[in-house]
User: Which sequence fits this backbone?
């Protein structure tokens, strides 16, 4: 099932609604890369709170989404990783180094806004 | 107590009809063994008192068995059960009832703190007393007497197997109870301020406790919407590479949930041993003590603690 990607101001919001197969993930990656450019977005929020498992492929894809978005000028924050998912990921040695993470959507937005503000102030 | 229902844990002892058959097969118990045993039924039933007395008199001389022999109530129960046992032993029926009787006796031994090695010694004395009488009864045909005694001995070993199983199962049960008790003393996660949790860790961290700790912390992070966690390990006796690894994993998992962890209270010894072990803790933010950790956390969260005017100056750091 494809993931809807919503535009909210200069943010993109992708809220995953069901467990994704590898193809859905690849499609999500492509779409975000394309939309970040099209809407000149500054931030991407990826809500994964529905997922009860994040395997190595999903983790790698999430990381590459974040990196791709960064190259296109947007910061990514992954929100809503569940406690047991976090434990499982750590035990499998899957990390999201270099990617922002936050507890939930609200936190993620706050973090992104702060990060974008910071980079603007730093840039000007 | 001993006559009450069997402790449910003892269901693990495997007393299904199949298991009972297996237990008999372990000691090579055949139907002709049962037939031979019935030939000495009268003898054993008649002298059951004496055999029981031999068993308990022997125990009475052993210091390690005082828990049983000096406890009048338990001893009385044990004597009665032993009597039943001796009678049942020569009945030729060794089904579930027989096994349950043994288990009851075993539970009683376990309550009295009788260890397997002491029990085995006394059981040997008992068998010797019976054996001596069997040889007397078969004075004319000692070969038959020996066979008969050997058949009885198979039942003896069947009993020993059960009693030892019970003693082990009871000990495991005690250990489980203690583990539960320890688990209940588990590490609390405390909220110190809005979005700031502290996790004071005390004692020995094994894998089970570490897992529980991680789970508890992550749930608290979600429930309290925490941004910063100060994990204080002053009270952790020893930090080896395994514990360090648990710490690293916990920190990484917390980070995935959007919380930063500050580890405090790493003593000089622990720090040196971690460096000597070559554990890479660069991914963990550390501060020397809990106070430092809290101050850092407050700074990160944007809190500023100011002393009220006119208050007594606090000692220590400003």
Assistant:
């Amino acid at each position: 099932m494809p993931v809807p990607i919503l535009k909210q101001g200069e943010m993109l919001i992708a809220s995953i609604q069901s467990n994704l197969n590898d193809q859905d993930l690849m499609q999500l990656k492509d779409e975000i890369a394309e939309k970040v450019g099209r809407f000149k977005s500054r931030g991407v929020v990826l809500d994964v709170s529905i997922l009860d498992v994040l395997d190595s492929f999903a983790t790698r894809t999430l990381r590459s989404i974040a990196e791709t978005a960064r190259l296109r000028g947007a910061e990514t924050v992954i929100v809503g990783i569940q406690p047991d998912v976090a434990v499982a990921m750590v035990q499998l040695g899957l990390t999201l180094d270099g990617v922002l993470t936050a507890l939930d959507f609200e936190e993620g937005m706050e973090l992104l806004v702060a990060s974008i503000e910071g980079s603007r102030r730093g840039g000007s | 107590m001993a006559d009450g229902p069997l402790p449910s844990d003892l269901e693990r002892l495997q007393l299904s009809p199949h298991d009972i058959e297996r237990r008999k097969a372990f000691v090579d118990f055949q139907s002709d063994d049962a037939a031979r045993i019935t030939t000495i039924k009268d003898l054993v039933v008649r002298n059951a008192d004496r055999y029981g007395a031999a068993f308990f008199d022997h125990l009475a001389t052993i210091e390690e068995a005082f828990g049983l022999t000096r406890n009048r109530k338990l001893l009385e129960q044990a004597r009665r059960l032993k009597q039943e046992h001796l009678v049942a032993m020569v009945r030729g029926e060794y089904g579930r009832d027989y096994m349950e009787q043994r288990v009851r006796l075993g539970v009683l031994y376990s309550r009295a703190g009788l260890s397997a090695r002491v029990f085995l010694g006394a059981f040997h004395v008992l068998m010797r007393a019976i054996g001596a009488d069997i040889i007397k009864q078969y004075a004319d045909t000692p070969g038959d007497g020996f066979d008969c005694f050997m058949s009885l001995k198979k039942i003896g070993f069947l009993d020993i197997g059960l009693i030892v199983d019970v003693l082990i199962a009871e000990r495991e049960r005690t250990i489980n109870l203690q583990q539960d008790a320890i688990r209940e003393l588990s590490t609390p996660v405390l909220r110190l301020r809005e979005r700031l949790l502290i996790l004071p860790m005390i004692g020995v961290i094994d894998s089970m406790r570490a897992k529980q700790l991680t789970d508890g912390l992550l749930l608290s992070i979600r429930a309290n919407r925490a941004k910063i966690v100060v994990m204080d390990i002053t009270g952790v006796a020893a930090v080896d590479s395994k514990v360090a690894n648990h710490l690293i994993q916990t920190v990484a998992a917390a980070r995935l949930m959007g919380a930063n962890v500050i580890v405090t209270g790493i003593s000089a010894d622990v720090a040196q041993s971690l460096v000597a072990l070559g554990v890479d803790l660069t991914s963990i933010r550390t501060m020397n003590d809990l106070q430092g950790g809290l101050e850092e956390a407050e700074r990160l969260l944007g809190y500023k603690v100011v002393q009220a005017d006119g208050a007594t100056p606090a000692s220590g750091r400003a």
